[in-house]
Task: structure prediction
Amino acid sequence: MSFLDTQSIKQPRRRGRLGWSLRESARRVFETLAPAVQITLAAWGSWAFAHYVLGHDVAFLSVTVAVTSLGLSRDARPRRILQTGLGMVSGIAVSELFILAFGHGVWQLPAIIFGVLLGARFITNSSTYALSAVAQSALVYLTVAPPGGPYTRTIDGLVGGTVALIATALIPRDPRGLAKNDAEKLFGVFLESLGAIRGAMQKLDVASADATLLTIRRTQPLLDNWRMSLDSAISISRISPFLRRHRDELMDQTRLLKGMDLATRNLRVVVRRIDFLIRDGQPRPYLADLLQQIEDATKILAQGIEDPERRTDALELFVEIIHQLDPKKHGIADQLREASVLLLLRPLLVDLLVASGATEDEARAELPEI
Result:
């Protein structure tokens, strides 16, 4: 979805009686293509190495560890993959050691699960690590030991985890594209909210302002997705030869994310205040004009997702806007209710300036004295 295509946000998608949407299903399939290729190749590679190179006839744990370590999570950071893989391999190793020492019986399975769970929680605070270790320890206990002697399954698990890390570096999931899409979705809702609250102010439409407030309050998942995608892309760029050259670009995008995170939070406050202000039925065309200017400049800032030079153009526009945020210039210095909206726009513009490339000190220095 383009950040300029705000109409697609407003129109509800058709769903079946059970809430099923063909478009949503197709979107999920499309977004899963790259992870599916990565997981398939990693699973096949780990099995082939364990089977043909190591001679393990039943190397299913190499496939299990590779698939589970990679997963379909948005979080594709190597650290998370390594953590999951280590949890599974440690569970396999502990279970095999326990079986060698105590054999099979009624009490052994709960003892293994209980011990591995507590041991994993002692080692790390990660619930993913603990649950991965427990699941694999139970699987090893409940399945027949393959030929090849003790710790054959542990070796298979190590193969699967290693191949998962190699696949992360050599067969990346286009994390740059995912971060870009998440950024565009956030900008789409941000721009839609700016346009909607401007329209509500022009028409003195309280119902529209209420709806805009609900929309902007739902942006936190979009911010969280963008942050996770960007963190994953930066982490993968440290080990992937294909993404290393984009590392500076990805690090630069963190500034844009930080600024837009704070700007979105401040926009929620502005929208809530305008929702209250327009209830007196008084038109305020200068405020609507300021919102229009902010919307136009933000559209240019959004183009900076792909073209960082556009952020400089947006910065210049935001500087012009922030210089107008003085209640005395609009003759409302003594009107607290109205001036409060203008004052709330000041931190919003500071955040947008930071997103455009200015430092916080530089952005605050542009604020007119009041």
Remarks:
- The two ends are 41 Å apart (CA to CA).
